[in-house]
Design a protein that fits this description.
By secondary structure, this protein is mainly α. The protein is 58% helix and 7% strand.
């Protein structure tokens, strides 16, 4: 799958989960497709747009609270992640632009 296809699918999922608000979710199929295509092009030109909290919440919708291991002893140093979208955003910040697309693919 190309980067463009990954972004397209991620945005489709986000829109299905409410990204873009009621203006998009109540729009016709053609209007939704135009929004998805425009958003994918925007993300490709300005990759930092993927750091939107609204986008992250829509991508992570339905995910349960997780636990991440910190330190050398995961049994005693676990940290609860209260909001999955915040973990998603943190990982996106830490990754290079190229790896962000691959990471995003995991959420499809």
């Amino acid at each position: 799958m190309t980067d463009e296809e990954i972004l397209q699918k991620a945005i489709e999922k986000a829109v299905k989960n409410g990204y873009g608000g009621s203006i998009v979710t109540e729009a016709t199929d053609r209007e939704q497709n135009n929004f998805i295509e425009h958003t994918a092009n925007t993300f490709l030109r300005w990759p930092n747009q993927v750091f939107s909290h609204d986008f992250a919440k829509a991508i992570c919708k339905g995910m349960e609270r997780g636990v991440i291991a910190k330190g050398d002893n995961p049994e005693t140093t676990n940290e609860e992640v209260a909001e999955p979208h915040l973990w998603f955003l943190q990982q996106m910040v830490l990754l290079s632009e190229r790896k962000r697309i691959k990471y995003l693919k995991k959420f499809l």
